[in-house]
Design brief:
Elements lengths: L1 E7 L5 E4 L13 E2 L3 E4 L9 E7 L7 E5 L1 E7 L14 H14 L22 H16 L2 E7 L4 H14 L2 E5 L1 E2 L15 H18 L6 E7 L7 H12 L6 E6 L3 H10 L6 H7 L7 E5 L5 H10 L2 E4 L1 H6 L7 H6 L4 E3 L11 H14 L4 H11 L5 H14 L4 H15 L17 E5 L12 H4 L6 H4 L13 H11 L5 E6 L2 E5 L2
Parallel strand pairs: 7-8, 8-9, 9-11, 10-11, 11-12, 12-13, 13-14, 14-15
Antiparallel strand pairs: 1-2, 1-5, 3-6, 4-5, 6-16, 16-17, 17-18
The chain binds guanine and fe (iii) ion.
The site of guanine has 11 residues, from helix 1.
Length: about 500
């Protein structure tokens, strides 16, 4: 009762498997076996053929492979601030928490050329090495096989992030943050001019191309932080730079996260008409653009995003933590917009995409209780219905906008893959896809043992902490695979991530 899976060591892609019914759950792309999984080789790319034996044997181990998570929006330098935001909202949070921590990734003061032009490895500040190592290790431990990172404005630290992702084996998009607008960015943390900003960005692209010339693991991504942080010449230059590459460069930014931020954009760009048209005007709204948040877009803006095929990174943990609002994900999906999930560390308090999936489900369940939901609904529908009919329609719509567990997992994997324009390569177990995978292990009642404390506390006690095989999710032997996955999403964490591979290379094991 064995199956085998072949992953080519040459390119880390799935070449074949020889068992049937690999998806017995109804979850697209999920591969589970009602048995235990024996990793036959070290999967480190040294073998010409890698075999993973799937043994459906007597023992119930409650393990399954799952596609690696894709974090479509995370700020690596903000990791020290994860969980620190008090009761702030976006604009005061940036000023109080974010710009101070990011500015610390600059070079030593003895570099007379200033941060933009420092390129020697020796100029890389120590905090960057330490913090970037930590955030990469931590996200890998949570099953994130691919991340789209915002770095800081600094060249050496941004280059260090790219090099460290390569060393750890995490697939990554690396963006030097562009911040040249003196009307918004603080004096202590900004690019000195649009020209310097552009040349600094080019320097980081050159480094990334040097360490990974084919872009097999690490790729650059143009990163105008958000409209308020950039001057018009800077936005224009980035749009042109993206288009000068074939295929065009990836782009990431923030959009319509917070109502005060939108007011600020309207003040700074009164000619544009909307937040979305600011980006569109400078050719930054492309099929390879990741727009984070998108909480407060107008119908016209959503239509333009759909028309341009730009992508949305949904960051529900961050949107709740900073009180930004609830992004109407169903309305994006209705329009055919591609959506993935982002942790948005440290607007988001957790580096876990499983947490983001959970929060996406929760936020969608609250959406029908908000004033904006009700208002939009009345405008759209009240003309043709009486009061009771309207109430019923509203309830139906509130139910329809809820995201299911399978949908949230889709966003975390295949959705994210499409957001980073890698839908053919990652996010599932299709033949030919890269083996970017996490091995999930859940608990089981069979692991429970009589507690040594029985004598003290009475018969029948079990010591969950000592004997529970793994994590927070207890199974009772009655669950279907679909139910096991639901329990994982609602109660799981990094203790359930037993091993992680990227392109067939083992990049994390739980010690
Ligand atoms: N808008 C501009 N910068 C940021 C940032 O660092 N995080 C979030 N969440 N929103 C932003
Ligand atoms: Fe962000």
């Amino acid at each position: 009762n064995q199956g085998a899976l072949w992953v080519s060591a040459a390119d880390g892609r799935i070449k074949g498997w020889d068992w049937a019914a690999h998806d017995d759950t109804g979850f697209a792309g999920l591969m589970t076996r009602n048995g235990w999984i024996d990793v036959d080789s070290d999967l480190n790319g040294q073998e010409s053929k890698i075999t993973v034996k799937i043994v459906t044997a007597s023992e119930e181990r409650n393990e399954f492979f799952f596609p690696g998570f894709i974090d479509t929006h995370i700020h690596a330098p903000q990791y020290p601030n994860a969980g620190l935001f008090g009761s702030s909202t976006l604009l005061d949070w940036l000023e109080t928490y974010t710009f101070p921590v990011e500015s610390g990734f600059g070079t030593q003061p003895d570099n007379e050329k200033g941060h933009q032009l420092a390129t020697k490895a020796t100029e890389t500040p120590l905090p960057a090495q330490t913090i970037y190592n930590q955030v990469i290790s931590r996200t890998l431990a949570h099953g994130t096989t691919c991340a789209s990172y915002f770095a800081t404005i600094h060249i050496p630290a941004t280059n260090a992030l790219a090099s460290l992702c390569k060393k750890h084996g995490q697939r990554a998009f690396i963006g030097r943050v562009c911040m040249d607008n003196p009307d918004f960015c603080p004096k202590y943390y900004r690019d000195t001019s649009a020209e310097d900003s552009l040349s600094a960005t080019k320097a980081t692209i050159a480094h990334i191309n040097a360490i990974d010339p084919t872009g097999s693991l690490i790729n650059p991504i143009l990163t105008p932080r958000f409209a308020p942080s950039c001057t018009r010449p800077s936005l224009e230059a980035l749009g042109k730079l993206a288009a000068s590459y074939s295929p065009p460069l990836h782009i990431q930014t923030h959009i319509a996260e917070n109502t005060n931020e939108i007011t600020l954009v309207n003040d700074l760009f009164p000619e544009a008409g909307s937040y979305t048209t600011v980006y569109d005007k400078y050719d930054l709204l492309t099929p390879r653009t990741i727009l984070a948040h998108a909480v407060h877009l107008s119908a016209e803006e959503k239509a333009l995003i759909a028309k341009r095929d730009a992508k949305i990174s949904h960051c529900p943990a961050s949107n709740s933590a900073l009180g930004s609002g609830i992004a109407p994900v169903r309305s994006f999906l209705d329009l055919g917009i591609t959506v993935g999930l982002g942790t948005d560390v440290s607007g988001g308090y957790s580096p876990s995409i499983l947490e983001a999936a959970r929060q996406a489900c929760l936020a969608s369940r609250l959406l029908g209780h908000t004033g904006t939901f009700e208002k939009g609904f009345e405008c759209g529908h009240s003309h043709s219905h009486g009061k009771d009919g309207l109430q019923k329609e509203m309830e139906d719509e509130a139910a329809r906008v809820k995201l299911s567990v399978p949908e949230s997992l889709y966003l975390a994997t295949r959705g994210g893959a499409a957001v980073v324009d890698m839908a053919d390569d990652i996010g599932g177990f299709d033949l030919g896809m890269l083996w970017d995978v996490q091995l999930i292990q859940l608990g089981g009642v069979k692991g429970l043992q009589e507690s040594p404390l029985d004598g003290d506390y009475g018969d029948g006690l079990v010591d969950l902490v000592r004997s529970g095989p793994v994590g927070n999710v207890d199974l009772f032997g009655t669950e279907t695979w679909a139910e096991k996955v639901q329990k994982w999403v609602w109660g799981g964490d990094d203790r359930n991530v037993k091993a992680v591979w990227v392109a067939g290379r083992l990049v994390h094991t739980r010690g």
